[in-house]
């Protein structure tokens, strides 16, 4: 017995330490779907003739850090930039004799998220202990909700752009199996030189919502679009800040391949993904790898693999080898988590101390899907534009601010926002709130365009000038650079005359009835005037000059 | 010199420490004894009885400082509460701020918690004076207080003098104190403190209380906060109260009870104020005698006391009837599964990283864990961890843990049925017999002993009920025999009222050490 005592520790599956990379804050991760490398239409395919074609099956497990001021079971503050181990209560450090006390704010966040994802909210849920030895898991177990989670059976409705021109909005949905409340772990920092591990427990005990999705996706792009939609929803709710590079949103992908109609293949779990772009790459690579492996007569191992963002490959995680037995057990220190609805709170309970599902529901903000519909309906814009507006952080707000401040039609505004503004932002890798042209400045420019002070071609030049000199304002730039609309009839007459004379072929074509060619002449006039000529007058003059 | 304590009690033998008209509390208030004198005498008593090994640490300086502060308050006529200046001790598995808390394990040797357990804090808030931390089986796993890394606890009655002769003619052998709160029971029994906090998971307060002849109360689960109690089995652990008299236990319970925001399993409970001053109308009380408690191994002496007290209750007008608790017999094996499982889980935090013992083996994190835990825990703890991890394995969970939980429900239902049928309290023995000798007890291993010793106490924890052990007589060997009263949930007050009546009837003798008599003579007039 005594001899076995050292051995029993091995019996409980002690994982080896794993290096958790500390993220670098200046690493700018682009979250734009447009940058996603893959698309489902071109899903990885093995060229070999095989019938029917194999397809990927993807399910996600998302850990969303709850945006609350204190941790899930302790009063320690949640903070990302505090010195190591400065946000650690006695409970977080697992001092013996400490007990968990559930943070009501975290429960409300989970309920709100569950409602937003069309889940059934369990009015009674339970907490369990999940055991494993890990240096940054001080208690030797994580408190989670294995048996009866707070929310189940939801639906995440998302869409992505598809079609030959990639301007078609394709709507899809994923079943959400459950949302469970659980504790985050601390962080280990391995110093290979001195062969020591440093532990920071600031993150230990922060509230997480684990969202388990059914394997309803088939490729990286779908997964990326779904996670982006989830991110937007969480951010709209304020229940999670959703920044993947800061670890507020962590996504693991369960990937397998099979031929439709056949049972699902053996799956692997891909971890270590810290951006949506990498998620798509990791999944597509893994699908490709599995397909090739099977085509070569190989067998997919049920294993955990890490995504290497440098190579774009997934590699087995050595220390996750072997099946863990987590030895789940009910958490005895927490009574069942009970939720209520207004007016039905049992006597003796303070309604302000319990979570009322109907109250949380009433606080639900406008969700991204609803917002897109509203934008289309209210402003008459295209669905794909509403998609872009909502998916870019702050872009819809920017758009609506411009629309409210300008006389220009929303349908005109949208072009400026999704083309001029967005391409400038993308070129310089800026976020909407970093835009050098403020919404108000753009509105002013569009007003000048609308009132005929500037032509649309010149307005684009003004926009670029504004971008360089945001402090000047559109009106001043137009003045200084003489970009105002040229509407002096005599001057335009001279220029048009010149153009007509230098393009006899085109004139002949027009006179033969090909009126489209007039546009070419108009272009020539604008070229001469650097786009400043009043197009209405020019057209009239040209028509007159070519009609004889 | 320790006579101050005994003499004061002798003056009012039936009154408790803090009851109106009570000797110590009143003597302190009236200035007939000073808090510092009292504290000094208790510390002296601890030194004189150090061979009992009741204390792991004695906080002499801190105690004197607290006593001085209490004395100033008492002199000003502004005591903090009824316990101001009253010396107490705490089992060494309750966290005490700035005072080493070991759980009698090498794993926590030298560990000093940065906070007080809620129940400790409540006593300190009353002005009670902390004398030290009492001995126990390592991490409260045991029923003898023989498995402590600080050595076993001796039963004070082994050393007592009854009728001018030493009560035990055992040569070099001595009786065990029972456990796991043996240190607390021995401390109260040897009169070195007026009250002690124990913990009770399967009988750990009542068992040593019974063997050491003191009142041992296990309140309803949830009435007392477990915050700061280093857990054994969270779903059964309850802080226990050990005192000389039932009314003292009632006073302490009333002070300690109440919801604690740091322990989500605490619940509001009715006040006990003046519970025991009311005359108990026994004709309105129905006492149940569980037939299954006529267990094999029950000593004839204990059985006789059980019958005697049942008869006394009947004679006083109570309805006494036999009841059945059919699932009780499965309690021990069920407890074993649940206890080991929670132990495996609760002990997982002791990895040497954040606090406590850390091995010097540092070849890898795994090796550090393994060596730390091997060095820090004794065999008993390691065996329970091993068994618990086995029960919790995915393939075993349904077969062991879930089954045990179902049986636990059946056991609890047995009690509910009996109480719903009109029974107010159950009367049972607390232990099978009086305290065994150390030599005899250690012939069997810890698990076997726990199985035997907890048979009457442990079903109560399964059901979360209140129970109290009251000493009723001395055995032929001069060792205490105690009986247990079990109440229904939240009926701690009714339970204590019956216990109080019982205590008055049985006239349990006062412990007397060699030299106590003369000292008492001298201080009788205090």
From TrEMBL, chain A:
Lineage, top-rank taxon, reads Eukaryota
Major localization listed first in the record, in broad terms: mitochondrion
Coiled coil region boundaries: none
An example Gene Ontology biological process: mitochondrial translation
**EC numbers, comma separated:** 6.3.5.-
Question: Which key words are in the record?
Answer: ATP-binding, Ligase, Mitochondrion, Nucleotide-binding, Protein biosynthesis
The record's InterPro entries line, in alphabetical order, gives: Asn/Gln-tRNA_amidoTrfase_suB/E, Asn/Gln-tRNA_Trfase_suB/E_cat, Asn/Gln_amidotransferase, Asn/Gln_tRNA_amidoTrase-B-like, GatB, GatB_C_1, GatB_Yqey_C_2, Gln_synth/guanido_kin_cat_dom
Q: Which reaction does it catalyse?
A: L-aspartyl-tRNA(Asn) + L-glutamine + ATP + H2O = L-asparaginyl-tRNA(Asn) + L-glutamate + ADP + phosphate + 2 H(+); L-glutamyl-tRNA(Gln) + L-glutamine + ATP + H2O = L-glutaminyl-tRNA(Gln) + L-glutamate + ADP + phosphate + H(+)
Where is each Asn/Gln amidotransferase domain found?
Answer: 397-545
Q: Which Pfam families match?
A: GatB_N (PF02934), GatB_Yqey (PF02637)
* KW DNA-binding (keyword) present: no
Q: Where in the cell is it found?
A: Mitochondrion
Assigned GO CC terms: glutamyl-tRNA(Gln) amidotransferase complex; mitochondrion
This entry's Gene Ontology molecular function terms read: ATP binding; glutaminyl-tRNA synthase (glutamine-hydrolyzing) activity
Could you say which enzyme class this protein belongs to? Answer: ligase
Q: Which family does it belong to?
A: Belongs to the GatB/GatE family. GatB subfamily.
Provide the function of this protein. Answer: Allows the formation of correctly charged Gln-tRNA(Gln) through the transamidation of misacylated Glu-tRNA(Gln) in the mitochondria. The reaction takes place in the presence of glutamine and ATP through an activated gamma-phospho-Glu-tRNA(Gln).
The record describes its quaternary structure and partners as: Subunit of the heterotrimeric GatCAB amidotransferase (AdT) complex, composed of A (QRSL1), B (GATB) and C (GATC) subunits.
Give the matching HAMAP family: GatB
The identity of this protein, by name, is Glutamyl-tRNA(Gln) amidotransferase subunit B, mitochondrial
Annotated gene = GATB
From TrEMBL, chain B:
Write out the annotated subcellular location. Mitochondrion
Say which domain of life the source belongs to: Eukaryota
Biological process GO terms, please? Answer: glutaminyl-tRNAGln biosynthesis via transamidation; mitochondrial translation
Q: Which GO terms describe its cellular component?
A: glutamyl-tRNA(Gln) amidotransferase complex; mitochondrion
Q: What is this enzyme's class at the first EC digit?
A: ligase
Which Enzyme Commission number(s) are listed? 6.3.5.7
Give UniProt keywords alphabetically.
ATP-binding, Ligase, Mitochondrion, Nucleotide-binding, Protein biosynthesis
Task: Show the active-site residues.
Answer: 91, 180, 204
Q: Which Gene3D superfamilies match?
A: Amidase signature (AS) domain
| Stretches assigned to the Amidase domain | 38-496
The Swiss-Prot or TrEMBL record annotates one GO molecular function as:
glutaminyl-tRNA synthase (glutamine-hydrolyzing) activity
Write out the catalysed reaction: L-glutamyl-tRNA(Gln) + L-glutamine + ATP + H2O = L-glutaminyl-tRNA(Gln) + L-glutamate + ADP + phosphate + H(+)
Give the signal peptide as a residue range, or say none if absent. Answer: none
State the family named in the UniProt similarity comment for this chain.
Belongs to the amidase family. GatA subfamily.
Which HAMAP family does the UniProt entry name for this protein? GatA
What quaternary structure, including any partners, is listed in this protein's UniProt entry?
Subunit of the heterotrimeric GatCAB amidotransferase (AdT) complex, composed of A (QRSL1), B (GATB) and C (GATC) subunits.
Describe its function.
Answer: Allows the formation of correctly charged Gln-tRNA(Gln) through the transamidation of misacylated Glu-tRNA(Gln) in the mitochondria. The reaction takes place in the presence of glutamine and ATP through an activated gamma-phospho-Glu-tRNA(Gln).
Please give the name of this protein. Answer: Glutamyl-tRNA(Gln) amidotransferase subunit A, mitochondrial
Q: Source species, please?
A: Denticeps clupeoides
Question: According to the entry, what is the taxonomic lineage of the organism?
Answer: Eukaryota, Metazoa, Chordata, Craniata, Vertebrata
What gene codes for this chain? QRSL1
């Amino acid at each position: 017995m005594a001899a076995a005592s050292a051995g029993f520790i091995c019996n409980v599956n002690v994982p080896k330490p794993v290096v958790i990379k500390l993220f670098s804050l200046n690493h700018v991760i682009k979250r734009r779907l447009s940058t996603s490398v893959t698309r489902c239409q071109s899903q990885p395919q093995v060229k070999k003739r095989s019938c029917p074609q194999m397809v990927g099956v993807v399910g996600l497990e998302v850990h969303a850090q709850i945006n609350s001021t204190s941790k899930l079971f302790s009063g320690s503050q949640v903070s990302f930039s505090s010195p190591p181990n400065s946000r650690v209560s006695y409970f977080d450090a697992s001092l013996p004799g400490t007990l968990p006390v559930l943070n009501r704010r975290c429960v409300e966040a989970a309920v709100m998220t569950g409602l937003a994802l069309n889940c059934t909210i369990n009015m009674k849920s339970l907490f369990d202990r999940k055991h494993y030895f890990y240096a940054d898991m001080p208690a030797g177990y994580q408190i989670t909700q294995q048996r009866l989670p707070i929310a189940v059976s939801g639906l995440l409705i998302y869409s992505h752009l598809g079609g030959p021109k990639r301007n078609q909005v394709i709507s899809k949905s994923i079943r959400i199996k459950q949302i469970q409340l659980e504790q985050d772990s601390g962080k280990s920092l391995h110093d290979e030189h001195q062969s020591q591990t440093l532990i920071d427990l600031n993150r230990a005990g922060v509230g997480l919502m684990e969202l388990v999705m059914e394997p309803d996706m088939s490729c990286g792009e779908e997964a990326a679009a779904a996670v982006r939609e989830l991110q937007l929803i969480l951010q709209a709710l304020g229940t999670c800040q959703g920044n993947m590079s800061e670890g507020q949103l962590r996504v693991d992908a369960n990937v397998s391949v099979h031929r439709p109609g056949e049972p699902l293949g053996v799956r692997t779990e891909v971890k270590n993904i810290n951006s949506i772009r990498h998620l798509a790459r990791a999944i597509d690579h893994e699908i490709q790898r599995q397909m090739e492996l099977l085509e070569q007569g190989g067998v997919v191992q049920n294993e955990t693999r890490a995504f290497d963002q440098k190579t774009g490959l997934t590699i087995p995680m050595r220390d996750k080898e072997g099946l863990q037995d987590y030895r789940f057990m009910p958490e005895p220190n927490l009574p069942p988590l009970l939720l209520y609805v207004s007016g039905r709170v049992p006597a003796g309970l303070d309604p302000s101390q319990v979570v009322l599902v109907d109250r949380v529901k009433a606080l639900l903000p406008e969700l991204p899907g609803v917002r897109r519909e509203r934008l289309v309906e209210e402003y008459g814009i295209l669905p794909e534009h509403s998609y872009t507006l909502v998916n870019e952080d702050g872009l819809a707000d920017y758009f609506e601010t411009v629309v409210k401040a300008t006389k220009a039609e929303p349908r005109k505004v949208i072009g400026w926002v999704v083309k001029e503004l967005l391409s400038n932002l993308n070129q310089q890798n800026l976020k909407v709130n970093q835009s050098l042209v403020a919404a108000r400045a753009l509105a002013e420019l569009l007003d000048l365009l609308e009132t005929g002070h500037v032509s649309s071609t010149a307005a684009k030049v003004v926009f670029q000038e504004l971008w360089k000199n945001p402090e000047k304002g559109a009106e001043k730039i137009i003045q200084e650079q003489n970009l105002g609309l040229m509407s002096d009839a005599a001057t335009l007459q001279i220029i048009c005359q010149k153009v007509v004379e230098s393009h006899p072929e085109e004139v002949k074509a027009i006179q033969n009835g090909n009126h489209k060619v007039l546009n070419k002449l108009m272009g020539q006039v604008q070229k001469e005037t650097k786009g400043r000529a009043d197009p209405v007058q020019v057209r009239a003059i040209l028509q007159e000059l070519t009609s004889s | 010199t320790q006579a101050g304590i005994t003499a004061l009690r002798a003056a009012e033998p039936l009154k408790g420490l803090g009851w109106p008209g009570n000797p110590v509390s009143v003597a302190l208030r009236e200035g007939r004894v000073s808090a510092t004198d009292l504290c000094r005498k208790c510390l002296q008593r601890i030194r004189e009885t150090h061979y009992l090994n009741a204390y792991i640490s004695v906080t002499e300086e801190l105690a004197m400082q607290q006593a001085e502060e209490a004395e100033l308050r008492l002199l000003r006529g502004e005591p903090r509460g009824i316990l101001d200046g009253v010396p107490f001790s705490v089992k060494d598995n309750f966290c005490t701020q700035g005072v080493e808390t070991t759980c009698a394990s090498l794993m926590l040797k030298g560990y000093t918690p940065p906070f007080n357990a809620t129940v400790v804090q409540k006593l300190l808030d009353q002005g009670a004076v902390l004398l030290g931390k009492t001995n126990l089986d390592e991490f409260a796993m045991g029923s003898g207080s023989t498995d402590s890394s600080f050595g076993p606890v001796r039963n004070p009655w082994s050393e007592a003098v009854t009728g001018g002769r030493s009560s035990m003619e055992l040569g070099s052998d001595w009786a065990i104190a029972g456990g796991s709160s043996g240190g607390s029971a021995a401390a109260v029994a040897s009169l070195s403190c007026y009250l002690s906090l124990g913990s009770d998971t399967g009988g750990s307060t009542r068992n040593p209380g019974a063997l050491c002849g003191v009142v041992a109360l296990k309140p309803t689960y949830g009435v007392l906060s477990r915050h700061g109690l280093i857990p054994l089995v969270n779903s059964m652990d309850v802080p226990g109260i050990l005192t000389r008299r039932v009314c003292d236990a009632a006073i302490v319970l009333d002070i300690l009870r109440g919801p604690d925001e740091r322990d989500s399993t605490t619940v509001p409970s009715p006040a006990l104020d003046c519970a025991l001053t009311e005359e108990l109308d026994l004709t309105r009380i129905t006492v149940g005698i569980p037939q299954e408690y006529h267990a094999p191994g029950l000593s004839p002496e204990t059985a006789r006391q059980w019958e005697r007290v049942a008869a006394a209750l009947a004679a006083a007008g109570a309805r006494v009837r036999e009841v059945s608790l059919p699932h009780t017999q499965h309690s021990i094996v069920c407890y074993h599964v649940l206890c080991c499982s929670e132990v495996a889980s609760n002990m997982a935090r002791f990895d040497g990283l954040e606090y406590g013992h850390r091995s010097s083996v540092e070849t890898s994190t795994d090796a550090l864990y393994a060596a730390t835990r091997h060095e820090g825990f004794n065999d008993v703890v390691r065996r329970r961890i091993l068994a618990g991890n086995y029960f919790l394995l995915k393939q075993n969970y349904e077969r062991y843990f879930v089954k045990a939980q179902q049986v636990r429900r059946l056991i609890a239902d047995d009690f509910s049925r009996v109480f719903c049928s009109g029974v107010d309290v159950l009367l049972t023995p607390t232990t099978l017999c009086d305290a065994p000798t150390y030599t005899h007890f250690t012939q069997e291993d810890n698990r076997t002993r726990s199985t035997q010793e907890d048979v009457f106490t442990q079903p109560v924890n399964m059901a979360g009920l209140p129970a109290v052990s009251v000493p009723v007589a001395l055995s032929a060997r001069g060792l205490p025999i105690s009986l247990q009263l079990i109440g229904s949930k939240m009926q701690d007050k009714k339970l204590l009222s019956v216990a109080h009546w019982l205590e008055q009837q049985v006239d349990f003798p006062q412990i007397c050490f060699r030299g106590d008599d003369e000292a008492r003579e001298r201080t009788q007039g205090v």
